[in-house]
Amino acid sequence: MTYNETIQYLYNSVPMFQNVGGAGYKEGLENTLTLDQHFGHPHRTFRTIHVAGTNGKGSCSHTIAAILQSE
Would you kindly state where each structural domain of the chain is located, as residue ranges? Predict the structure, then answer.
């Protein structure tokens, strides 16, 4: 799916994406949770490790990759 096809899909199938500008902004997590539900909660089956922070992401990611590749 291309970027434009993805945008069209979101606009056509997820009503909250039809709003633009100030009308598209909504405080809180309701829109995120609705989108998550629409796609069937993909994070529940997609195994990931999220590495965040100011310093050390590269070395931390490298160490995690080495550990996972050794198994």
Answer: 3-70
